[in-house]
Design brief:
- The protein is an alpha/beta fold.
- It has 10 helices and 12 strands.
- The chain has one domain: 3-Layer(aba) Sandwich (Rossmann fold), CATH 3.40.50.
- Bound molecules: adenosine-5'-diphosphate and magnesium ion.
């Protein structure tokens, strides 16, 4: 059986705002990533993707707070570890996170090699500069990046090169899990392709053992990930192998996401361009019952009255809707014709 690299059980985290209000951005999320596998997380802006990524590192600072649940990485439950121990023995080595827009947040006065020194020395302060440089050079070579980049400042690099450099720096300590948050969103199509290619290669070159790739574009995940999880209003609404999530989504929200984007390279040229009307709900006061009901084309009177659980549909699939698979598929067929 494949080894589990990351397991999350029933994780709930919240922001406590200055006005004392709670924002439940990650609501009872469970997931598993096995060795050699990648998980994609999709959902519109504000659905809780980045908060989930931050929460997975087990390193909380206000306004984000841990509420309940477990995070197990490399066999250790990190939710019971002290922040200092997480910083020393988990971040960078077990779990590495590339935040959204990381490449624009690079300190402009620091050369790339100095970022790498910071990352390595945060883990082991006794590492000397010479050995860090040797490690960086060797890693860049394997990852197909020119070693000259190490001596450059961020402004001297193009957008695509900057993003690939950020990725290379994040995986320098060969983490068990890499979380890349919208890594290709701000790039032109050519650079986007190079970033995707690099991410795909990270497991083959042994830099990482597993990956979580976050984007609001569901079809993009089909090219990169084995499984897909769709989030809506802080909750998982669908989990499925990538192909099914993209070509045979069950939840009306996943169906809507699929229809709202066209990615020509992935052979989805004929997808209809239909944005989902409305916006995700305010997570300070999420609606009762199904959180998507307000925007759902297939809504029934019961949807708003009952709390909807994530239903295990077998074949590694789950979805959060009161309608049966059969009813949903018939409704989608009907809508198409
Ligand atoms: N620092 C914060 N304080 C309070 N609420 C926040 C903060 N950051 C994000 N949120 C809220 O948490 C929810 C999830 O946001 P986020 O995780 O950034 O979503 P996504 O990455 O899917 O766009 C949103 O409702 C957002 O307004
Ligand atoms: Mg985000």
């Amino acid at each position: 059986m494949a080894k589990v690299m990351l397991e999350v059980r029933d994780l709930t985290t919240k922001y406590i705002t200055r006005f004392g209000e709670d924002v439940y951005a990650v609501d009872h999320v469970s997931l598993k990533v096995e060795e050699g596998k990648s998980l994609g997380i999709a959902g519109e802006s504000g659905c809780g993707k980045s908060t989930l990524a931050l929460s997975l590192m087990g390193y909380y600072f206000p306004p984000l707070h841990y509420t309940s649940g477990e995070i197990i990485i490399g066999g250790r439950n990190i939710t019971s570890m002290k922040p200092d121990d997480i910083r020393k023995s988990v971040l960078g080595t077990e779990i590495a996170y590339i935040p959204q827009a990381a490449m624009n947040a690079l300190n402009p006065t620091q050369k790339i090699i100095h970022f790498i020194e910071d990352v390595v020395q945060a883990h082991d302060p006794t590492e000397n500069k010479k050995s860090i440089y040797d490690l960086a050079r060797a890693s860049f070579e394997v990852l197909g990046l020119p070693a000259e980049v190490l001596q450059k400042y961020p402004v001297e690099l193009s957008g695509g090169m900057k993003q690939r450099t950020v990725i290379a720096v994040s995986v320098i300590l060969r983490p068990t899990v890499l979380i890349a948050d919208e890594p290709s969103s701000a790039l032109d199509v050519t650079s986007q392709k190079m970033v995707i290619k690099m991410l795909r290669g990270l497991m083959e070159t042994g830099f990482i053992k597993s990956m979580i790739f976050i984007t609001h574009e569901l079809p993009l995940l089909y090219n990169v990930t084995d499984d897909i999880m769709v989030m809506y209003a802080g909750q998982i609404v669908e989990q499925a192998p990538a192909k099914q999530a993209v070509f045979d989504p069950l939840h009306p929200y996943s169906k809507g996401l699929m229809g709202s984007i066209i990615v020509p390279e992935s052979g989805l040229r004929n997808a209809k361009l239909t944005a989902i009307p409305g916006v995700p709900p305010n997570l300070k006061k999420p609606p009762e019952g199904c959180r998507f009901a307000e925007r759902c084309k297939y809504v029934r009177p019961d949807c708003k009255a009952t709390t909807v659980a994530l239903y295990n549909a077998g074949d590694h699939r789950a979805y959060r809707c009161i309608l049966s698979e059969k009813t949903l598929r018939e409704a989608y067929q009907h809508a198409q014709s």
